[in-house]
Amino acid sequence: MATSRKLITLDEFTIQQTRAFPKATGELSALLRDISLACKLINKQVNKAGLVDIIGKFGATNVQGEEQMKLDIYSDEMLINVLRNSNDCAGIASEENDDFIAFDDAYSVNSKYVVLFDPLDGSSNIDVNASIGTIFSIYRRVSPLGKPCTKEDFLQPGNKLMAAGYVIYGSSTMLVYATRLGVNGFTLEPSIGEFCLSHPDMVCAEKGKIYSLNQGNSRQYDKGMLAFLDYCMEINKEEGRPYAHRYIGSMVADLHRTLIKGGIFIYPGDKKNLNGKLRLQYECNPMSFIIEAAGGVSSDGKQRVLDIQPSELHQRVPIFIGSKLMVHKALEFVTAGTEEAAVAP
Ligand code: AHG
Ligand code: MN
Ligand code: MN
Q1: pTM value?
Q2: Which amino acids bring their CB within 6 angstroms of ligand 1?
Q3: Residue ranges of the chain with pLDDT lower than 70?
Q4: 115: helix, strand or coil
Q5: What is the CATH number of the domain that holds 232?
Q6: Do residues 296 and 162 share a domain?
Q7: pLDDT of 140-156, one tens digit each?
């Protein structure tokens, strides 16, 4: 009996992509498979988050007498455990840990890649059942093979990324993955437990109608940011209405919307926090790589985020990211505000 198949799994897709490069070894595809396995295990736990909370209220231990883990610690440990067992990961750095971890077994010291991640993004949204995510990025190491990886492997600028992606635990679970070849989205098909291609060749629209930021911080904004906010709230000539404001408070969810519908996401520096809140290596670089690969733009207000040379693992940077024309417009306001401030007495 002939069978026809429409589903392409993440694994099949990356293997097909690899075939275009005769010298490719398949290690990157294997590493992605490992990351996606960890995310499927995190997804399983995310789906039970409400139940876990209920159990917690009746006594914070499970039947084996183990303490219920917070989801972000669980996600961190899951990624570390899976990647430690992987043949293709020399070490990891995570938002949840003070320092990077170099895996020192015989396989890992010869692995070409290091992985950085924000294991659970938007964790304040867990309690309210809103979308959360995992963000990951992959660099080729610069330290010599045969020895454990070093800090320099993790302090590379985003323009050296091999690949980056995120998983959104939303109304469905999706993995969005970018290489220099483009951005593709895969939806988890629960009955077979596989991410399947659902959003091929994702493109971030050049124009957008949505601005996304924590407007509650606006008292701390500088003049340029306030002027851009005013611009967003004015009746727009093309739209006949102001731009819409949408803010979930999970970077993954806000940027997933920005990628699909267009718009701008901003976490600026302000009077209180000069460098904003979001972390360069775990959040801003991977998201900038994805959005740029989809045709969008990402800046810290002065330069391309991907061109920033990181100086420490957990450094924060301001970010303006999304549809090209909207980001350029925001940067016009921000630059004018800075120039005005520079000449003020
Ligand atoms: P995390 O949960 O990994 O600490 O990240 C939270 C981040 C990000 O997801 C979101 O864009 C931002 O925090 C929201 O911050 P505010 O609550 O300050 O708006
Ligand atoms: Mn985060
Ligand atoms: Mn996090």
Answers
A1: 0.94
A2: 95, 118, 121-123, 214, 249-251, 277
A3: 1-4, 52-69, 341-342, 344-345
A4: strand
A5: 3.40.190.80
A6: no
A7: 999 999 999 999 999 99
Same domain, 244 and 146: no
CA distances to 41, 128, 208, 227, 262 from 245, rounded to whole Å, are: 33, 20, 12, 15, 12
Q: Which of 131, 287, 293 is nearest to 204 (CA)?
A: 293
Q: Assign residue 78 the CATH number of its domain.
A: 3.30.540.10
184 lies in the same domain as 226: no
Instruction: From 275, 278, 280, 317, give the residue whose CB has the most ligand 1 atoms within 8 Å, as the site to mutate.
Output: 278
Task: Point out the ligand nearest to the CA of residue 254.
Answer: 1
Instruction: Please give the pLDDT value at position 1.
Output: 59
Distance, CA 132 to ligand 3 centroid (Å)? Answer: 9
Report how far ligand 3's centroid is from the alpha carbon of 163 (Å).
19
CA pseudo-torsion sign 268, 272, 274, 276: negative
Which two structure tokens, joined as six digits, stand for 321?
């990211």
What is the chain's length? 345
Q: What is the pLDDT of residues 182-221, one digit of tens each?
A: 999 999 999 999 999 999 999 999 999 999 999 999 999 9
Give how many domains the chain has, as a whole number. Answer: 2
pLDDT for 326: 98
In Å, how far from its chain's centre is CA 157?
Answer: 15
- At 245, the amino acid letter reads H
DSSP tag of 170: S
Q: What angle do helix axes 324-343 and 223-233 make, rounded to 10 degrees? A: 140
Q: Ligand 1 center to residue 37 CA distance, Å?
A: 25
